[in-house]
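User: I'm writing a short methods note and want a consistent example. For MFS general substrate transporter, I'll paste the sequence; you return only the structure tokens, no commentary, since I'll be parsing the reply automatically.
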Amino acid sequence: MPIPDILRDSFVGQVIYYASGRRLLQYPEERPGFVLPPHYFEHNSENAAENASEAAPRKARDPAASHRSSRSESSLSGTLREDALKPDPERKRPSALMERESSQAREVLHPHGRDADKVEKAEQQEIQRSPIVDWYGPDDPEYPGNWSFFKRSFVTFQIGWLTFAIYIGSALYAPGIQDISQKFGISPVAASLGITMFVLGYATGPMILSPLSEIPQFGRAPVYMVTMLIFVLLQIPTALAKNLGALLPLRFLAGFIGSPPLATGGASLADMWAPADRVVVIGVWSLAAMCGPVLGPTIGGFATQAEGWTWTIWILLWLSGASWVFLACSMPETSAQAILYRRAVRLRRVTGNPNLKTQAEIEAANMTMGEVAMMTLVRPFLLGFREPIVTFWNLYLGMIYGILYCFIASFDVVFIEHHHFNLAQNGLAFLGIVVGGILAFFGFLPWALYSLKPKFANNTFVPEDRLPPAFFGAFFFPASLFWFGWTSAASVPWILPIMASALWAIGAFYLFQAGMNYLADCYPRYVASILASNDLFRSFVGAAFPLFSTAFFHNLGVGPALSIIGGIAILMLPVPFLLYKYGHIIRSWSKFAD
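Assistant:
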């Protein structure tokens, strides 16, 4: 993992690259001695000679010499073979958990194929005009799947940290609700709207911002870094807000603008890891996502007790700001389409051939605005309500997500009101959920490595193979709710409800891992829409629960209140087992599922 390449591919590196007129942090195609194959100079532009003059120092000036050199030098040492950029039908294209949907959009819009055939014909005609800019071979070092294990692990850590730094913003605010209520002269329910608005923001933000990361001209890293910078700056007026009218819009904007990594972090991981390895790295990312809302009250409790509610926001500013500096200097682009697009831009400039394009550019040029709107805005709603598998998991995971924010209110009742914890001690009680999540991951790991992964190698994998962890989660989930609810009294040792929260985390982790991956495997062509639908639904549920949780627990009591939710969880318990046995039949009824 050479340091110059890490810096060059980062957000800051790209700024330096363009600000220097492409003289600093150059790519291999721009360095003296790099050999270009002759067919990239074959075009009829009158300005070919003038544009190609930039390539004068390169040996590729002489096509014959280029051809001879390409046979004697290795592509990995800075040389392109003559066939390096030609499409290779035998080589697998990059696959991602978040499927690139642009090329399949017409299949949904025009299921009978008439208009899709016309578009496909236009694309084929465009392809025939000039070679497609592709990878330099199966071992191309710029393809994210070919990065070293250390580099991919480093970027995985970055994605997890970025997700954590945004997610923690929702619950970091929670311990300050009482302080906000007193200082603004409002009710605690009104003060809790700060959580609701943040969660609503990151529920709706991906519908607008996340599709930008699928556009090759943008890519993932610039979207992450620009939105993260705005997120950091928004914390300043938030901390200085003097009334609820100023606070709530800023909280919504922060959630909205910080949402892309939460929605497409899994796609960034899928850009780098093969499907057999993806189950583990997605588990790591999910653990980081879980730790954000859980550790928020822990850190926020100490901050609020010491300095008041504004310090929860200042801590978020410091955490996210330091994260931005680190990531902006070291996070590379992971989108294969974006990497190839930038390569095409360089090759067009170096060769003077304006017809050099990537497959994604050609597909995007033949898509209408209506198709794009359908793909990003309408389809998630349609699939969320028309597909039984999607509807079930939306309801199930939405309930889990809502209960996570319910726990924030229940912990206040159980540990502050019943056991007389202070804010800092109450925050520490949330560490039971963190411990449960870690135990769940290490319990999940052997199954993923020794049971699930071999099925990929043997080519026997089917989507239902993702579901066995949900069998355990479906039991642990209601059991933890009853346990927590009926051990919440002041007469019961405080450690018991904390242990129950750890069991809840184990059940939630297993259900999330099974559900999210099962949805992705059932609908690989439309996975971005499927996961956007799930993200939107569960975030809306999570935004609603804080509004009634406190009254819910006070009016009914913690035990009866959680027993109601636990009863609903019991009613849903058979569904993972039914999907395991009959899921393939349900998928066969759908025109969207595979």
